[in-house]
Amino acid sequence: DSGVTQTPKHLITATGQRVTLRCSPRSGDLSVYWYQQSLDQGLQFLIQYYNGEERAKGNILERFSAQQFPDLHSELNLSSLELGDSALYFCASSVGVGATDTQYFGPGTRLTVL
Amino acid sequence: SQQGEEDPQALSIQEGENATMNCSYKTSINNLQWYRQNSGRGLVHLILIRSNEREKHSGRLRVTLDTSKKSSSLLITASRAADTASYFCATVPGERAGGTSYGKLTFGQGTILTVHP
Q1: Which are the contacts of A3, defined by CB distance < 8 A and separation ≥ 6?
Q2: For a Cys staple, A33 with which of A92, A107, B54, B113, CB 3.0–4.6 Å?
Q3: Residues in B 55-84 with any Cβ partner in A closer than 8 A
């Protein structure tokens, strides 16, 4: 158990809908990262927050948005869902914002868009 | 797009044998990391090697890095059935590649390792 929690574990929804994925980082960690894992794209970095501020952005779609709250939990919002958004979404956390900080991954949320 | 390409895509060995996985990348890096993923579960950090290091050990793991060839290898010695998993290399870009000190990991496609008892 990494100490990172993600809810829900599974989510099934329809195209065009909007969902929110939630992540609670390990106690004491200030950075939160979001990754998407799909069969065709592999593991892709989406976005990073540090202490409430966005710090790095990957190939995150405009339909996706995220935020980190004052209590450091984070939410990833996915809207206008398409079939291709079906994937495993991982949250990770680390103590700092540096390149060598170990990232601890949560168990993931499996999103299925029908 | 993926920074790293891993080789082989799949590896099947017997318990007790050594397993070697290779990773190649394209741009300059700050560091390279290896992760393990058990069947659709979260990733577990195994080891990190900085761009100025050539070799690193952790238990049964040995990682090498050749920045001139932009490649790394992960060796698992005396493998066990419990080592069965997917293994991913991930890179953090260096300054020359336009990276920052932020921990943006770029993953390879992974190697599926199966260790038979």
Answers
A1: A26, A27, A93, A104
A2: A92
A3: none
